[in-house]
Amino acid sequence: MVINESLQEIANKTVEATASVSKDLTGQAWSYLLDQLKPFTTVFKTVGVIVLIYVIYRIWRGIVSIKDRNRLKNIEQRLDEIDDKLDRLLGKRSSDKLSKDKKK
């Protein structure tokens, strides 16, 4: 039994030592990896800001284009009204000219 207990203690200490070494190596690997990726994180942040600005710009242009379309629609309606009025005025004048020509 003493041998089993000693073997059990040795196994526990080996597992603890392996776990602590692997934690240290994992921590060192992550810190090394993060140190190597710092320039990329700066680039990704910059790209993210540029994409955000572009999205805001596209939303703004969409709103402005909707306003422009409404403005053009109003102008077109006004031009149609003016065209109708001119047609009515010119139509009366042309009929007046025809009646005068007939009298002569």
Task: Detail the topology: elements first, then pairings.
Elements: H1 2-103
Provide the descriptors you would attach to this structure in a database record.
104 residues; mainly alpha; 1 helix; rod-shaped
Ends apart, CA distance between termini: 142 Å
In helices, the fraction of residues equals over 70%
What is the 3D shape? rod-shaped
Run of helices and strands: H
Number of helical segments with 4 or more residues: 1
What fraction of residues sit in β-strands?
under 5%
Please give the largest β-sheet: none
Number of strands: 0
Low-confidence stretches: none
Write down the overall mean pLDDT.
81
| Class from helix and strand fractions | mainly alpha
- CA radius of gyration is 43 Å
Question: How does this model look, in words?
Answer:
The protein has one helix at 2-103. It has 104 residues and is mainly α.
